[in-house]
Write the structure tokens for this entry.
Amino acid sequence: MGRIDQARRSAPRKDVTPVSVSTVASLENLAKIAKGGMLTEASTTGFLLIIPREHLVPLDLRRNLSLESLVGTKILVHLTELNLEISGRIARTRLRGKAGFEVGVDYSDEAPEYWRECLVDLLPAPGEIEET
């Protein structure tokens, strides 16, 4: 593991009030990977998505117990409530049973550090937003 990888993993993570994701698409061919999910954690190096199995678009992914084939894929994620698109690269995946899949995403190299810090500050911590 290189020095950059170690530095990326040492960034403090922030649990956030889940933010809806309407689309996860491949940046290479704009093929839709998922039609929904939630962003549940963020740091200045990346973020964590929870994607229910039924929200996966390709049939072969829905039928599989692993999303390992997606690791390394450059993606574009649309955050519904913030009307924001974030690009990154899938760094890791993990099956969470009936909850679906956990997908760890590292920001793209083009995302400036100050922008990543602002995004983490902008995302609401659990309990910051009152339900009406």
Summary: Residues 22 and 95 are 20 Å apart (CA to CA). Strands lie at 14-26, 32-34, 37-42, 46-51, 74-79, 84-95, 101-107. The radius of gyration is 14 Å. Residues 113-122 form the longest helix (10 residues).
